[in-house]
Design a protein that fits this description.
The chain is built from 3 helices and 7 strands; from the N terminus they run βααββαββββ. It is α+β, with helices and mostly antiparallel strands. It has a single domain (5-153), classed as Nuclear Transport Factor 2, Chain: A (Roll), CATH 3.10.450. The chain has a 7-stranded mixed sheet. This is DUF4440 domain-containing protein. It comes from Handelsmanbacteria sp. (strain RIFCSPLOWO2_12_FULL_64_10). Residues 1-20 form the signal peptide.
């Protein structure tokens, strides 16, 4: 079976509250490819919603056991460390808004890039940042799971 290669550009300014809503998807991709892109985006927004709601069981389901996360400071955490910070309330996500999202599918792997405006509470204070991000998802056991997340702070002009 030949691997499916799809590049779908989804240009949007969305908040995670707009879960499942996309605009501007390329019309040249076939309906199967668009369904795959929609499934990846659905997982993306479900992750955001679970983070904002502190839904640990949902995060456990959506994030691959061997996942890694690199934050804008360069600090790297694994799934257990990331989820533990949310569980213990050391980090509380207030809002996550994504834009300029691009989804690329390579068979059972999806790469999502874009810009995210995020507000969170941690280290005893309110924080916010605007980042470029890259997330990698893998399709396994009938679902998409987050396997890697990396964010880079966008310098203020």
């Amino acid at each position: 079976m030949k691997p499916v290669f799809v590049i779908a550009v989804v240009t949007m300014s969305v908040s995670s509250a707009a879960f499942g809503q996309t605009k501007g998807a390329e019309t040249g991709a076939d309906s199967f490819a668009l369904a795959v892109v929609q499934a990846v985006l659905q997982t993306e927004f479900e992750c955001d919603r679970a983070l904002m709601q502190g839904d640990i069981s949902r995060l456990e389901h959506l994030v691959y056991d061997g996942a890694t996360r690199t934050d804008p400071s360069g600090a790297m955490t694994d799934k257990a460390q990331w989820i533990e910070a949310v569980r213990e309330g050391r980090v509380r996500y207030v809002s996550i808004e994504r834009e300029d999202m691009k989804v690329r599918i390579f068979g059972g792997v999806a790469v999502v890039t874009g810009i995210v405006d995020i507000k969170w509470q941690g280290n005893g204070r309110d924080n916010d940042s605007r980042n470029r991000y890259l997330r990698v998802y893998v399709h396994r056991q009938g679902r998409w799971q987050l396997v890697a997340h990396q964010a880079t702070r966008i310098a203020q002009p």
